[in-house]
């Protein structure tokens, strides 16, 4: 590569840096960010945690405020909701009046992948002295949140979801069997907001959405009582996303606790439980970590980007390296949400094929920490994807065509906090 080529690349990335900062600032509501204007008008849980690492590149105080605001919505039972409805927006469905959450802030009744402890540790590393008191202020809440998962979401040590939205991978094939077992009677008429902002071919189908709403209505009817919701539940799926992110976040929380002089023996026990639970997600038929229906007992038989979060959680497996090489050889940019050879693959329909920057970040980070060269490949191809195609919500893995929402917070955040950096930076 010539010096002229390098200068061109550097100039293009500087422009993207400025665009990414502008997106975070435009989506900033003062104490929290929205994922993107119109499509997602509230604070989403794991979106917000990723936003913090983006803010940390230029405003540490704002990064900590993002995490503090997220934790301010924590329920009495320890759960941190997947949506906090800080400002009413009657045009959004399902709104807080449908969810009927019971926390201190109007909210949904389910959680999302618990990446906050990991992102908080990354923010703290930017300036440990500046962030020490802020970290101490949210530490106990993070422990309580993790305890809630351990108390209510385990099956054989793997972490289950009770709603597809809880995994953050709404229409992933992992839930197909469990969704088929639901008859969404009594859902009634409703108007979706997502398809008024994004082409319906890029979103979950009405078949999916009817079942999403049925599960929300069931939870609201039961007052989001975890014990009651477990009884005769039709939907409980052991999920690689949840299992691997909770395992990673608990390792990070334990490390933070040791540095703070806390007793982390409980966290260490959780790590052992989750490590064993992760092995129950190994599907020998496809040689890959896979979603497991805890009610029906069937495998998803899907090689997804969540399968490759194993290294992020500190778990290596030689067969997974082989699977990763196969999948990355099919796609131009990073790791698609479903392998391209799967008959269910759809390059633009949400979590049934598109590539997501945040998943690439977690996969790439785990690979690099394990000393595997694919980590740098994932980072570089993600940087190329964003440099060439902008800050979309997700992208077609074959050609990088942007899809979903635009000017997306977490895509901008991982550009600033990970993708655009050279190896070792």
Summarize the structure.
The protein is mostly helical and 425 residues long. It has helices at residues 3-26, 45-55, 60-71, 96-99, 116-126, 128-152, 164-167, 176-180, 194-197, 206-221, 226-230, 240-259, 265-279, 318-330, 357-369, 374-389, 409-419; strands spanning 43-44, 83-84, 154-155, 158-161, 237-238, 282-283, 288-289, 292-293, 394-395, 402-403.
Rg over C-alpha atoms, rounded to the nearest angstrom: 20 Å
Q: Helix tally?
A: 17
Q: Supply the CATH class.
A: Mainly Alpha
SSE order, as H and E? HEHHEHHHEEHHHHHEHHEEEHHHEEH
Q: Please tell me the overall pLDDT.
A: 94
Q: What shape does the CA trace take?
A: globular
Strand content: 5-15%
The CATH topology label is Glycosyltransferase
3D structure, described in words:
49% of the residues lie in helices and 5% in strands. The protein has 425 residues and is mostly helical. The longest helix is centred in the first third of the chain and has 25 residues, at 128-152. The strands form four sheets. The protein has a four-stranded antiparallel sheet. It has a single domain (3-419), classed as Glycosyltransferase (Alpha/alpha barrel).
Keywords:
425 residues, mainly alpha, two-stranded antiparallel sheet, 49% helix
Describe the secondary structure blueprint for this structure:
Layout: H1 3-26, E1 43-44, H2 45-55, H3 60-71, E2 83-84, H4 96-99, H5 116-126, H6 128-152, E3 154-155, E4 158-161, H7 164-167, H8 176-180, H9 194-197, H10 206-221, H11 226-230, E5 237-238, H12 240-259, H13 265-279, E6 282-283, E7 288-289, E8 292-293, H14 318-330, H15 357-369, H16 374-389, E9 394-395, E10 402-403, H17 409-419
Antiparallel strand pairs: 1-2, 3-4, 4-5, 5-8, 6-7, 9-10
């Amino acid at each position: 590569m010539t010096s002229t080529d390098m200068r061109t690349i550097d100039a293009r990335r500087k422009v993207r840096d400025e665009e990414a900062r502008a997106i975070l600032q435009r989506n900033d509501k003062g104490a929290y960010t929205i994922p993107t204007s119109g499509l997602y008008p509230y604070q989403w849980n794991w979106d917000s945690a990723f936003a913090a690492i983006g803010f940390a590149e230029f405003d540490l105080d704002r990064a900590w405020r993002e995490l503090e605001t997220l934790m301010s919505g924590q329920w009495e039972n320890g759960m941190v909701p997947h949506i906090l409805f800080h400002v009413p927006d009657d045009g959004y469905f399902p709104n807080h009046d449908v969810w009927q959450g019971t926390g201190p802030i109007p909210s949904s009744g389910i959680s999302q992948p618990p990446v906050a402890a990991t992102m908080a540790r990354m923010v703290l590393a930017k300036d440990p002295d500046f962030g020490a008191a802020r970290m101490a202020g949210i530490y106990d809440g993070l422990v309580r949140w993790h305890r809630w998962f351990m108390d209510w979401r385990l099956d054989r040590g793997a972490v289950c979801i009770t709603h597809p939205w809880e995994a953050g991978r709404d229409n992933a094939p992992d839930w197909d069997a469990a969704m088929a077992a639901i008859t969404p009677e009594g859902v009634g008429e409703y108007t979706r907001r997502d398809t008024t902002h994004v082409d319906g071919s890029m979103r979950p189908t009405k078949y999916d959405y009817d079942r999403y709403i049925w599960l929300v209505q069931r939870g609201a009817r039961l007052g989001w009582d975890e014990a009651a919701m477990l009884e005769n539940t039709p939907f409980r799926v052991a999920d690689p996303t949840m299992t691997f992110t909770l395992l990673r976040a608990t390792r990070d929380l334990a490390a933070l606790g040791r540095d703070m002089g806390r007793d982390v023996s409980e966290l260490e026990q959780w790590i052992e439980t989750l490590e064993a639970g992760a092995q129950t997600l190994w599907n020998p038929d496809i040689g890959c970590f896979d979603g497991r229906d805890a009610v029906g007992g069937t495998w998803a038989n899907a090689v997804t980007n969540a399968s490759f979060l194993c290294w992020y959680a500190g778990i290596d497996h030689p067969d997974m390296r082989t699977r990763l090489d196969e999948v990355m050889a099919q796609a131009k940019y990073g790791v698609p949400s479903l392998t391209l050879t799967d008959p269910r693959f759809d390059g633009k329909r949400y979590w049934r094929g598109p590539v997501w920057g945040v998943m690439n970040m977690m996969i790439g980070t785990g690979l690099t920490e394990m000393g595997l060269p694919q980590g740098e490949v994932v980072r570089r191809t993600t940087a190329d994807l964003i440099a060439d195609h902008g800050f979309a919500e997700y992208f077609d893995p074959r050609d990088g065509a942007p899809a979903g929402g635009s000017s997306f917070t977490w895509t901008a955040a991982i550009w600033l906090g990970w993708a655009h950096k050279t190896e070792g930076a």
